[in-house]
């Protein structure tokens, strides 16, 4: 506490102790004095009397915690309050002599106070220097700690940044570890299975070795048997070749014999059953093994028992129900070759209605396996023509296709734009003039039959010929009867004229092939024909009857043969008159209800086979 000062004269002289204190303070303060020292100097110069209470207090340090970058740092103890140090030389205010206004302090008292203050200042200065040094060190430590804290912070951030990736990698490693563990378990299972399979493989290997031994043994046996079979096959082939050669020789001799005899070749074919005819009762027909005869059995009632009559008919060849179109054509193909060689050839199908005549002659043009005799003959003729043309021959082929309907001739290749009904109306109007409209002409030099005014079309390819066959077949007169759903009501006559020239050898050839699909004979009561169909049936039966009569007259060597009784026999005059090779295909039904018609057809065929028509002659230069 400062003593109270009373105002005096402002120009009074300072006391000696004030001057001394001020001077000592000035000489003792060097460098940068602290705030406490400056305050002390100020107090001295302001003429204040220092007491114990007015001595500057040095700050003491207390423990202080500082947080830097989330790091806790403990600093040195620093006190914000100044501490009063005691000085025995300084007399307390209470013991000091009281000074009154207008009096001076005692001199010894001033010297003691000054000395104490100087010591205290020196101590404070040393303490201050030490504290400054410590503060500098602590600042360095603090800077180092802060730097390390910053580095630690950056390191922590780097670690924290890497932590998600490390976590994912750890998850992946765990997943891979689980997969590897599962693979290990699976490998164990597979090892067990492999061991089992190895054992099975060893067992199978042993079995294979045994089988190989058996196989080698059997192969040796097979080789022996194969060698033996090859030897036998060679013997069989040699025998077959000899038999085939003998058969060919027999056929040639047979053909020569027939040519010498002049007989008509007659073949018989039994129609096969269709899919819807399996439940129909069949006739008792039996073909011989040599395919030369057919046997038919019929039953008749006597007085007390049923008697069975068996009849056998012999032909040049018999085809049973299993025979196909190719087998039939193989027997008549030599006759087709004869037409190319310059002979007149006539092949006609005969039989009751529904016996398969149209199928045999025409078949199905679109199906190679079911082609009839006409399209097959066309194929063979054009193939042979190509072979002969390579040798220098030149051939021209002409065709005519007509039908004999109700004793009138109708052209199946002409009037293509007219329907069947229109053509029928035309022929009804010109029935009396039909003989003048389509005349049957005979070429005496070539011994050929030509239908005058009927279209004679030139063909150069078999594809064109097949197209004509389809059109002509669709234009034929057909109707449905009780005996046949699709019954031909006319005789179809297909005539193929072949003219060949061989300039190198100055040779020529003129031949013809007539393929005739006769209408079927019908039982009027059985067919149920009435009206126009009745007239058609009567004309068909009459023309077939006239054909039988002509053949019988030729067989009996009658002095006069009446060919002019019908259009059919008139057209077949040169064929049956001894200048052509003739083949008759007798078609019969396999059903029991047609056994009488079958027997009549077989009888007529056998009669025709015994008929001598003369030796065929070739036409042309040879």
Automatic annotation (TrEMBL):
Keywords for the protein's UniProt record, in alphabetical order: ATP-binding, Coiled coil, Microtubule, Motor protein, Nucleotide-binding
GO cellular component labels: microtubule
GO molecular function: ATP binding; microtubule binding; microtubule motor activity
Ranges in coiled-coil conformation: 128-162, 187-263
UniProt KW Nucleotide-binding keyword: yes
Family from the record: Belongs to the TRAFAC class myosin-kinesin ATPase superfamily. Kinesin family.
Name the record gives this protein: Kinesin-like protein
Organism: Funneliformis mosseae
